[in-house]
Amino acid sequence: MIQRILTDTVRRAARKFPVVAILGPRQSGKTTLVQTLFPLKPYVSLEDPDTRAFAQSDPRGFLAGYGKGAVLDEVQRVPELFSYLQGVVDRAKKPGLFILTGSQNFLLMQHLSQSLAGRVSLLTLLPFSMEEFQRGRVKAPNADQSIFKGFYPAIYDRKIPPQDWYPSYIQTYLERDVRQIKNVDNLAVFQKFLKLCAARTGQLLNLSSLAIECGITHNTARSWIGILEASYLVHLLKPYHENFNKRVVKTPKLYFYDTGLACSLLEIEREKQITTHPLRGSLFETLVVSEMVKARLNRGRPKNLYFWRDKTGHEVDVLGIEGGNINAVEIKSGLTVTEEAFAGLDYWGRISRKPGKRRLVYGGREKQERKKAMLVGWETAFLLP
């Protein structure tokens, strides 16, 4: 079994906080992780209808059965529990009492922050990362294979072909999760919206274009993006606003967390299609950005990643904020890197006047020290920025 990097972060949090909440998409490995780390705690799945009904109708009585703590799985199904949990943990005054997991973030974060402020450590578990493969000495796929397969555990643990697993995952998501949301009354249109988002991964978010193509309002498109964010299917990379006397783009960029899911939505059925696909560059960029995000979240750190683009077209794909330093990363999918590829980093270096490293991630594996920036292979992108 691949060791999850979040393990140490969860253990550290459980020694300090009475409640630890592990959030993330369905099938990312949350249940396996908590059952492995806390084998002596009772495990309670709130997906079970009888258990859920008991917790909803009598939260106090339900929690009374777990005076020594428990693992509560899919806790977003019973938001009524949170205010009662506050009283339980305040009386017990023990760290690591309750371990919560959740895969839908629609109202979960609001309930957790309101009812358990100062008592809960919020962590995120995404699918496998390249770093976890390398630590576990698992032979990692090449770039195109990684883009096509994605990193959901079932594809590797159960060896399910991605072209079989992802369509079922998407359908389950639509039928099981999205149907519970009142403002989504047409799943067919929502699925079209999801596919259109996949075609825009790695691009600036254009809500008006999405709305027009789906035949929905701008406000609905904004709401649906929020649903996809809350489900941990997509995330938005915010622009870095300091303009350095230049007009800058203030629209976020849209990324999928998992390229395998994006490929399925794009109806890519074979790995060979990736090589010549018109969106290969965007999918490669999506893969690299996702690895950077996982590296930070796995350690319980804030994402703190941005991009920068001005109105004249100058751009840096990723900026990582570290104290007073800003590390700049450019992403190119090709195996050959020309001097032109460093243009964005070179321009950034001239105008920003901020301390920090400059690196270019490319589709190869070698690491080279170039005059304008360090050239880094895609497999070690998690070390950046």
What characteristics describe this protein?
Rossmann fold, 9-stranded mixed beta sheet, 17% strand, 5-stranded parallel beta sheet, 3 domains, Arc Repressor Mutant, subunit A, 385 residues, alpha/beta
Can you describe what's shown?
Helix content is 41%, strand content 17%. With 385 residues, it is of the alpha/beta class. It folds into three domains: 6-124, 3-Layer(aba) Sandwich (Rossmann fold); 130-282, Arc Repressor Mutant, subunit A; 306-383, no CATH class. A nine-stranded mixed beta sheet has the order 6-8-7-9-10-11-12-14-13, sandwiched between helices. The protein has a five-stranded parallel beta sheet with strand order 2-3-4-1-5, with helices on both faces. The chain is globular and about 65 Å long. The two termini are 28 Å apart. The model has no long low-confidence stretch (mean pLDDT 91).
Shape call: globular
Here the CATH topology of the largest domain equals: Arc Repressor Mutant, subunit A
Q: Write down the domain tally.
A: 3
CATH class of the largest domain: Mainly Alpha
Widest β-sheet, arrangement of strands? 6-8-7-9-10-11-12-14-13
Q: What is the radius of gyration?
A: 22 Å
Could you tell me the number of beta strands?
14
Q: What is the helix content?
A: 40-55%
Count of alpha and pi helical runs: 17
Distance between the termini: 28 Å
List the helices and strands and how they pair.
Elements: H1 6-14, E1 19-23, H2 30-37, E2 43-45, H3 49-57, H4 59-64, E3 70-73, H5 81-92, E4 98-102, H6 108-115, E5 120-124, H7 130-135, H8 143-149, H9 153-157, H10 162-177, H11 187-198, E6 203-204, H12 207-214, H13 218-230, E7 234-239, E8 253-256, H14 259-265, H15 272-276, H16 280-297, E9 305-309, E10 315-322, E11 325-331, H17 343-352, E12 358-362, E13 368-369, E14 374-377
Helix pairs in contact: 8-14, 10-14, 11-12, 11-14, 12-13
